[in-house]
Prior knowledge:
The complex is a heterotetramer.
Chain A: E1 4-9, H1 21-28, E2 34-40, H2 46-59, E3 63-68, H3 71-84, E4 92-96, H4 98-102, H5 108-126, E5 136-138, E6 142-146, H6 150-161, E7 165-169, E8 184-185, E9 190-191, H7 192-205, E10 209-212, E11 215-223, E12 226-233, H8 248-252, E13 258-259, E14 268-269, E15 272-273, E16 285-286, H9 292-296, H10 301-305, E17 318-324, E18 326-329, E19 333-335, E20 352-354, H11 355-362, E21 383-390, H12 407-421, E22 426-431, H13 441-450, E23 455-458, E24 461-466, E25 472-478, E26 483-489, E27 491-496, E28 498-500, H14 504-511, E29 538-540, H15 550-568, E30 572-574, E31 580-582, H16 592-596, E32 602-611, E33 614-623, H17 633-637, E34 643-645, H18 650-661
Parallel strand pairs in A: 1-2, 1-3, 3-4, 6-7, 6-18, 7-10, 18-29, 20-27, 21-22, 21-27, 22-23
Antiparallel strand pairs in A: 5-30, 8-9, 11-12, 12-17, 13-14, 15-16, 19-28, 24-25, 25-26, 31-34, 32-33
Chain B: H1 3-15, H2 27-31, H3 42-50, H4 54-58, H5 62-65, H6 71-75, H7 82-96, H8 117-126
Helix pairs in contact in B: 1-7, 3-7
Chain C: H1 2-13, E1 19-24, E2 33-37, E3 46-47, H2 59-63, E4 70-74, H3 76-87, E5 96-101, H4 109-113, E6 120-124, E7 134-139, E8 142-147, H5 154-157, E9 169-171, H6 184-190, H7 194-206, H8 213-217, H9 244-256, H10 266-270, H11 278-292, H12 319-322
Parallel strand pairs in C: 1-4, 4-5, 5-9
Antiparallel strand pairs in C: 1-2, 1-3, 6-7, 7-8
Amino acid sequence: xxxxxxxxxxxxxxIAATVDVxxxxxxxxxxxxVVHAEDYQYMCxxxxxxxxxxxxxxxxxxxxxxxxxxxxMHEATFRKAAERAGLNPYMVEIANIRxxxxxxxxxxxxxxxxxxxxxxxAVAKVNLNTxxxxxxxxxxxxxxxxxxxxxxxxxxxxxxxxxxxVDIVEKTPSIGGRMSQLDKTFPTLDCSACILTPKMVxxxxxxxxxxxxxxxxxxxxxxxxxxxxxIRKKARSVDMDKCTGxxxxxxxxxSKKAPSEFNRGLNNRSAIYTPFAQAIPNVxxxxxxxxxxxxxxxxxxxxxxxxxGAIDYEQKDEIITEKYGAIVVATGFxxxxxxxxxxxxxxxxxxxxxxxxxxxxxxxxGPTHGHLERLSDGKAPxxxxxxxxxxxxxxxxxGKPYCSKICCMYTAKHAxxxxxxxxxxxxxxxxxDVRTPGKNFDxxxxxxxxxxxxxxxxxxxxxxxxxxxxxxLVQGSDLLDNKQILKEADMVVLATAIEPNPDVRKIAxxxxxxxxxxxxxxxxxxxxxxxxxxxxxxxxxGVCQGPKDIPETVAQAGAAxxxxxxxxxxxxxxxxxxTAHSDELLCNGCSxxxxxxxxxxxxxxxxEVNDHGIREVRRLAVVNSALCQGCGAxxxxxxxxxxxxQGFSNRQIxxxxxxxxx
Amino acid sequence: xxxxxxxxxxxEEISGVNPLxxxxxxxxxxxxxxxxxxxxxxxxxxxxxxxxxxxxLVNSESLWKCLSCFACVERCPRDVKPGKLIDAARQMVxxxxxxxxxxxxxxxxxxxxxxxxxxxxSAFRRYRR
Amino acid sequence: xxxxxxxxxxxxxxxxxxxVLGWKAGDLPYDPEPAYFETAESLKDFVYNGFxxxxxxxxxxxxxxxxxxxxxxxxxxxxxxxxxxxxxxxVDREKAYIIGVGCKGKLDIEKIRxxxxxxxxxxxxxxxxxxxxxLKIQTIYGExxxxxxxxxxxxxxxxxxxxxxxxxxxxxxSKETKDGERFDEVSRIEKLSPEEKFAFFQKELSKCIRCNxxxxxxxxxSCRKCVFDSNKFDSxxxxxxxxxxxxxxxxxxxxxxxxxxxxxxxxxxxxxQGIPLHLFNRKFIKDIDELYxxxxxxxxxxxxxxxxxxxxxxxxxxxxxxxx
Amino acid sequence: MSIENKSFxxxxxxxxxxxxxxxxxxxxxxxxLSYPADVKIIRVPCxxxxxxxxxxxxxxxxxxxxxxxxxxxxxxxxxxxxxxxRRRMTLLFSMLDYIGVENGRTRVEWVSAAEGVKFSDTMNSxxxxxxxxxxxxxxxxxRCRN
Lengths: 662, 129, 324, 146
């Protein structure tokens, strides 16, 4: 029989206001095994933990039930407290009487009754708890970064500087990401390339960093500290060792009709290409869809002009298998598809562009060489209209329910830059709210209004109507003046909502990392663990976790790096002891469990058993507890009940069921 | 419950609109073809319902100026549908006059030159699908 | 039958097999029982007739542990069970010499008795070699005759086919007996109102005396120790008639064999209370076929069982309420 | 609803997977989204840990309804757990329906960690359903207590 102590937390008034905590403690004493019960204001405080520890010593407790907030909140706290008092940490169970009781019920009597039942269930479970000991697993001291944008680069640099090996896997031919497409950055207006390129170079030159560009993660297995990852290195058709990056092949390539991804499709590139001049590595790839040689078998000009003999049409995709201790996701974002917002005429007029396209137009390396001009006729615009919140803050299925966060600031930046360089251009911004929380952000926006004379109108645009003369008629409202506005513009810029890179869903599935309804990766705790995924060993960097600007991304990238370093610095990890175990005398050796195990943790061995005097060799399931993650799929698949899960055993769960239904 | 509150709730019920979802972006007014002829503008409809001042809405010019083109309904990013609110206010007026509950089969017979055009348009829209 | 005995003698004599697993004549003409024969002489008691319904596959679990090969006689439907046991690593194919025996449908003594036949002394026409469509029954009250088809087990009327799924050699002829649809009865029950369904099953299950005959005969219930006999689920409470075990036994048993049950029908055949236990198993089979694609357990030895498999777009559990 | 029904307080067991639904229930709590106190949650690591025996056990012990919540298919923390759970529960529920236990007493709902509102809505509608079905007598009386 256990000697159980029950500790009921008031959580200030969070619990005590709706649950009669002393009554719960009183009722606890009537439960089998309970030898001690008390309530206290804050069980998680030092004083509260001391009470638990004192009781363990004084009453020789063998099990603890804490009636408090969710186990997701403080289970670890109380387990550690018990451990310090010499009790096995897995002898602690939590009855969640806050999130599942006091916070959702108003009636005191009802809530108290429920709290008592939840306490009973936890006591019933603890009565069947057994001390568990975590196993150990090794840590591979290498990190994988998925995504080579500013987030991935920064995380990689920070981890590498701490002395650990880092591999970056980037899908496109070059690292750099979205930031490489930007012209200037707010709120300081430095040139994006000027601050990014040195980091790209640093990453590529770092002896601890290996970069796989034009590559994708294909398969992930294993677990924290010991992931095995297959990386597909797509055929570049260019030998990276031989290529000197002279660029002659791109110049001579006769196929120049492929839309440039880097310039958002605003102009074309050759079939053999590097996405941009500062690309790292500075080695082109052949776009096999666009290449004449690949399409017709004839051509081969690039091969002829390449003095280094680097062109290799025969190159094949290569799979590299590597082990990692930690994985950082830094897959970034893209702008949403605007098909559902036809009222803004994006598909009808070349002069309606997204803000990211405007970045390319404003950039000296862009399609217009940095001249602000209409993409339809090359004329300089006189009237420019910016429309905010296109697809952001939408509760219908056309857009995204969240604020994309960066648009207010980049629009202020664009408006300011245009007014600065082309003072005769009028700039009007239609906004719903201007959101500028951030250091020097509101000052920046005010400068756009006060110094640069940007015309901000509070009100959304309803429709953009292309006119026969090429102008764009913008119909919007001015809510402050209570007017409907009709305005002729030469160019319209849409502050298009951003969304997580569509690949992230596939990657999250491979990593078994959870994802929210908007495809942003979920953090382990919204406030306290913002750069970790709930899946151990997976860390989040940049916009894949939620909308962010560059300084925030860099800050989070550093934080993710620290978390990854904290993991890599360990030689051994303690594994979750709540793993499956097979009872040798009950096991049929039928392989049913093996078929449902997602981790390949179950194997079969011929073992001699002594079944009540009968000695025989049987085929038995054996669980590798380092691989087992404790899902329990096998326990239900097992027909004989031989397979059971420690910490969530059949008898424990049934005891809870019985206690609740009593 | 006060009469005013009842009216406001009736509007919400008929329209199926939750006016609290409005984020006051003004896209409805931006898009409205009858904007200039209206005394209460589409983006203001919601506040009249929230403030339980259905009476002003019912007595407004806008009530019969709205063409029921539903551009505002189509484009509202928050699913608030100001056009449905004003449509509901019209319904209320008609119901009070005792011409409640149109069924699609009845419409042809009711084609009366006296009947406001807006009602017809919105009725056709409502029963289109 | 003689051909079978001769061949068995031959295989025993030349040392191919160490023993024969077949049926031995019982005390009464209609109750042959499974038996091992280790010598040629002992085969004089060997029988194979219409009353040899017992599925011998399950005996091979123990026989696989014995020295040498065991000759086992399997009817077509028994071979599904044997395949399933191979899949679950419960029998050793190398330890078995399978003679696929022919089958013309197996008889149910209860069906004969239900026709008012009492005091049976002998039965003619049940031999596997007999071509007669009628059974001639000598009773203490005189001779009676019963149509073979009217005396057949339910399972033979919905036979899966007379093809042996696994064998080393085949002896004896088979005759098609299927004249009904397997799922008709399940469909009928499905269409009843909840009250009628409940009344039906309550009536049937109330007859259960928990003798465990169904469990013991079932080739899928091959666990070394049944969950109802271990303390793993707090489910063994023998003393308490009104316990969890008592009420849920048949549902849990059916669930445990779902996707593994070959529908051999042994559970219903052996039930002393005549509970149509196959109706539970068949319901699962019907659901699996309809929801996850047709699946016959024991058709092969390597396919994935439906409950250890999935597709991304499987039906949601709410489909149960929607099917009506 | 009759007065009798109002005094009926159903016993409802909810199995919630640790990673999504339990967290969803926590979110419902921290968002103060109420649902009846009749619902008691049991935490399991994954929906695939829920043995049909647990559900039958609950009914046998007097539960009036059992609901199981897990991560949305495709989002399982253990990749595939809820796919197995989905098949198991579909078959079990179908069997219970087959023996005449009202289908509304069992439910599976996929609730993510972000869906506090869905969790609370689900529990409200489930409790309402159990209220409309009344006390569960059938599974407790599957064998006549002659």
